[in-house]
Amino acid sequence: MKTSQELFTAYTGIVQKKTSMPVIKMLLSGIFAGLFIGLGGLGSQVASTAIGGGLGRFVGACVFPVGLFMVVMVGVELFTGNCMLVIPWFAGEKDVTIGGILKNWIFVYIGHFIGGVVLALSIYYSGLGSLFDGGLAQTAAGAAEMKIGLSPAEAIIRGVFCNILVCLAVWMAMQAQTVIGKAIAVFAPVMLFVLCGFEHSVANMYFIPLGIMYNGGLAVGDFLLYNLLPVTVGNIIGGSVVVGGGLRVLSKQ
Questions:
Q1: Farthest-apart Cα atoms in the chain, separation
Q2: What tens-digit pLDDT sequence spans the chain (253 residues)?
Q3: Distance between CA atoms of 18 and 163, rounded to whole angstroms?
Q4: CB atoms within 10 A of CB 184
Q5: pTM of the model
Q6: Distance from C-alpha of 117 to C-alpha of 105, rounded to nearest angstrom
Q7: How many CB atoms lie within 10 A of CB 90?
Q8: 3-state SS of the chain?
Q9: Which backbone phi and psi does 206 adopt, to 5 degrees?
């Protein structure tokens, strides 16, 4: 297992590779990551619907990390984890520019949206919503309604804490050198954020479009304005300011 200081040393090179990646590769990588996170979300909702109650919520939270584990093992780009790309920029590394970081964020984020919506459409037209006598469709619709109904402050705060945990999961997974180590590093923080009800912008690109399809009273504009925007702001604060800034301070000799 790498120490944090060893990872700090290597991370500038990692960021340079991520920010210099061709745009088409960023976009395609983002699409795959959106699909992976969405599939973890689907599994989570299937488990929670099948079991129900508090136990169902816990089991669903234990299933969801599969999505991030696939992201880590395949090596595709995840916007929320990439909120930490600012660490070497904070340190004054001249080869890492804010323009390169923003380019990565924007195209990876667009890719996530494509992947999440395509998966949501696929699940809707596959008929999987009929599982458990339509219970899965009700779960999806209820989750979307709850997420859109958050106040801006609630959405931002939940986004902050979500991405603190996601970025810590990604950082610890980079430290781990074995598959089992990476799985454990991903599982614990991500399970915790799902269990606590924190908000992940990439997951919501799947959860809410699917819920809108099952609940005609929900609007796409409300999803974008009242959930995705404030949650994304919260994710950036949690990942870039709290974790990125905090790790930069800790990296100082």
A1: 59
A2: 777 777 878 899 999 999 999 999 999 999 999 999 999 999 999 999 999 999 999 999 999 999 999 999 999 999 999 999 999 999 888 889 999 999 999 999 999 999 999 999 999 999 999 999 999 999 999 999 999 999 999 999 999 999 999 999 999 999 999 999 999 999 999 999 999 999 999 999 999 999 999 998 999 999 999 999 999 999 999 999 999 999 988 877 5
A3: 19
A4: 15
A5: 0.95
A6: 18
A7: 16
A8: CCCHHHHHHHHHHHHHHHHCCCHHHHHHHHHHHHHHHHHHHHHHHHHHHHHCHHHHHHHHHHHCCHHHHHHHHHCCCCHHHHHHHHHHHHCCCCCCCHHHHHHHHHHHHHHHHHHHHHHHHHHHHHCHHHHHHHHHHHHHHHHHHHHHCCCHHHHHHHHHHHHHHHHHHHHHHHHCCCHHHHHHHHHHHHHHHHHHCCCCHHHHHHHHHHHHHHCCCCCHHHHHHHHHHHHHHHHHHHHHHHHHHHHHHHHCC
A9: -100, -50
Q: Are 214 and 128 within 8 A, CB to CB?
A: no
183-187: long-range contacts at Cβ-Cβ below 8 A with a sequence spacing of 24 or more?
183/69, 186/65, 186/68, 186/69, 186/72, 187/62, 187/65, 187/69
Residues 166/80, Cβ–Cβ less than 8 Å: yes
Q: Dig out the tokens for 53 from the structure.
A: 């109650």
Token duo for residue 198 = 């924190």
Judging by beta carbons within 10 Å of its beta carbon (0-12, 13-18, 19+), is residue 22 exposed, middle or buried? exposed
